[in-house]
Amino acid sequence: MTNQLRSSDYTIFVKVDDDNYLIIHGYTGSIDLISKNYAHALRINDLDKLPDSIKKRLQSRGYLTHKNSSEERNVVRIIGETIHKKELSRRYFMFLVAYDCNFRCPYCYESAISENGSGWKGEVLSKAMIDKAFSIISSESERTNIRNSITLYGGEPLLCKNKNIVEYIVNKGVDYGYTFSAITNGYELHHFNKILGKGKLNVLQITIDGNERIHNERRRHHLNGDTYKQILKNIALAIDNKVKVNVRVNVDKENIKQIDGFLEHIKSNKWENSEYFRCYAQPVQFQRISSEQIVTNCGGSSCADSEIKLNKAQLFDFIEKELDQDKINIINVPDNSIKTRLKEIFNHGGNLQMRSVFCSAHSGLMIFDPRGQIFSCWEFVGHQFSTIGNYYPNFSFNDENLKKWNSRTFYNINSCVKCKYALFCGGGCSAKALIENGKLENSYCNSFQAIFQRSVKSSYSEFLSKK
Amino acid sequence: MSTKNNDVELRSFNDPLFDSELSIEELEERLELSPWVCFSYCGEMGEGCVTQCENCVGAYT
Predict the structure, then answer these.
(1) Taking a C-beta distance cutoff of 8 angstroms, is the pair A375, A369 a contact?
(2) Residue A37 to chain B, least CA–CA distance (Å)
(3) pLDDT averaged over every residue in chain A
(4) In this predicted model, what pLDDT tens digit does every residue of A233-244 receive, in sequence order?
(5) Is the peptide bond before A393 cis (omega within 30 degrees of 0)?
(6) Domain check: are A319 and A276 in the same one?
(7) Among A334, A357, A391, which residue terminates a domain?
(8) How large is the ipTM?
(9) Listed residue (A446, A399, A370, A327) closest to A116, CA to CA
(10) Residues within 8 A of A (CB atoms), B 1-60 only
(11) Which domain holds residue A200?
(12) Least buried of A35, A50, A226, A339, by fewest C-beta within 10 Å?
């Protein structure tokens, strides 16, 4: 190395109190507490202010480097490529049981799919399709590393009228050694008792949109109307059956203040103490794509829902400022597991996990739909532009689309590869990038930097309080 | 190693994944051996990872 020693471009600074910063290195993974004077010197590259012993340690941990900016970016790119090579050797599977749903939620992607005609909603996976899909899963398992759980998706995957076919999928999967999860509205869950529980359908994501009033306004049954009470009954049923329930609360500026009512219900039932219950909030937005392409770019202020949409930083703000501590402890905000992982690291060491992509839509997810098509992104199922192949009657990949989805890595996005958070973020959700920023290949930061900073502060504060 | 924040000059919580001054060839070799990559199923699915890789060094919950 002939370059002069300098501060790395990839040091993340997090002020944790008046005297100290946590510094986290974006590609060596080092995590250190450092006094504010040294942090300041490091930040402005004033290395004369650092004692030699500190300099030596900072260099050994990556915060000081002889690499220039271009060489550092190259290292980040190589790490990303190596991780991605490993990720592409994996497979994850979902069955889209039917596009039909018993709810009519205003933000659902199905409003775009309905342009394809009402026939789509009547289509359900057939036994022949399921058999074909399992034969593909079986053959993929011989050459790839496969996750041992399969997800059921829709539409609504757990409709009573489709019970026989859902039981067929689960029973067949269990014979192959798989367990199942489902992303469901939970309204008709009680009809699926026979397949609920350990070793079968054992993980559910169920959505609640706030208190009873706001939930019933948004998540209505197309015939029966209100759904809140029935869903809560079914959450209790699932927990009783030792099924893990992840409750997702979709929030925007119109319903955020109403989540308190649901959190009260959780507390009164002591669900927060159950190992089978978790709850998280997620900002929601209206889908604005046609069956073939984007018709509206929602990044602009002209979008109706841009006024009510929350970003994750705003969601964090609300939770911290408006909720009591006992409720803050109940509801999580997705942060790529940064907070959970850091709590471990502060006590026992280890590293934050690094990723080349935001999710498995870019690294091996295969979603089998009832029209014989395969998709990789569950936000865009049913859209011709996002199909990565067909499986029924004949199996083949659409190589062009598959390449497009698999190459949407952070290191193929110029703005991401320069970002010190890139390996912890993965480039953000591509579906949101397409909807909000116009292209799948664009980045979608979604306040990741702010979320990361908050998660670091929060986990460190908890670590100190428990010492 | 001090535990009081106002005494800290530099306190390390972990080991770096690799030496930052490794050559590109050494780095690639090191990465090939590492089990620390994350195959998170979907960042939109909530805080906890549902993938739970066999060799995970993370804290899937």
Answers:
(1) yes
(2) 9
(3) 88
(4) 999 999 999 998
(5) yes
(6) yes
(7) A334
(8) 0.84
(9) A370
(10) 3, 5-6, 8-21, 24, 27-28, 31-32, 36-51, 57-60
(11) 98-120+155-334
(12) A226
